[in-house]
Amino acid sequence: MGIFSGMLNSDESVFQDPVALDYDYMPRIIRGREEEQKKIARAIQPLDQKRTGGNLILYGDSGIGKTVICKHILRIVEEEADDIIPIYINCWKKNTSYKVVVELCEKLGYRLTHNKKTDELFDIVQRIVNKKAAVFIFDEIDKSEDLNFLYTILEEIYRKSVILITNEINWYSNLDQRIKSRLMTGLIEFKGYDSKELKDILEYRKNFAFFKGVWDKKAFENVVDKSVKIADVRSGLYLMREAGNNAEDRGSKKIEVIDVKEAIKKLDDFNIKSIDSLEPELKLVLKIVKEHPKAKIGELFKKYEKKGGDKTYKTFQRSIKKLAENKFISTEKVVGGSGGSTTLVDYSKIKKLSEF
User: How many Cβ atoms from other residues are within 10 Å of residue 155's Cβ?
Assistant: First the structure.
């Protein structure tokens, strides 16, 4: 045996299909969510019978399959039902009625949105969709700054199912009564995966993502154990990808415990909601908070202005609130003192995934 017998050649890889480690990857079978899938399918089924469908709110912690299940079902609808339009919008990214309706137009193939008002665009959406039926899925609905688009869809679209996804069930309790009464929704709770289900999911993805036999048994068990403690599938997928990259960096044909340990060290840099998904304005605010931890919000605003920020103080406050809601930063209300009440903003107080 030569000294390079366990090493990768330049044209070799431990990865068979790394795309299978993307959280948004659509596996052929969605593990551990069969019952939830059936309930969603039953809500949508009337659309195929020329009737209006049911509406649902899906709730539960991050990383437990709500989005994946919905995208999986939309894919089936797209493949099998010519008369039903599948629409998915994330309200973290499209957080106003105007942004939502522009995105609706885009998905419906209408692109002449420039210089048109929100109501005008909704009229166009209504004309297109009412010729058929539609499944509307609004992910992270609690991040939307207004819900006028939801009211309009419930009022003006004839045959539809509206599915709302949120981590915060309290959001529904506080929903405007005029929307709640029209929604008449069912609730589906997505409970956390147990250790057996989580291992099954990661094993299933591993078999698609990696060549057979490249994973050391103990190394994979370490990934599963860490993922169970964190209770998030996405963290497990991240660890598997990073461990594979570490093995390749070593030139090894085998992913070993040392590769997983190195991947776990990187968990502090892994955020379930990627910083890349933030708008430029929020990225700027987050950068300032990171550079000035435990600072008062007023002091941060002055730093923001020096960096070229041109938004008002109230808009800056909303940016801070949005980053805190999505766990990029933490805030603490401090009452009293010479300056009166204030808010302390911190980046470092957010619990790192490696601390679980």
Answer: 11
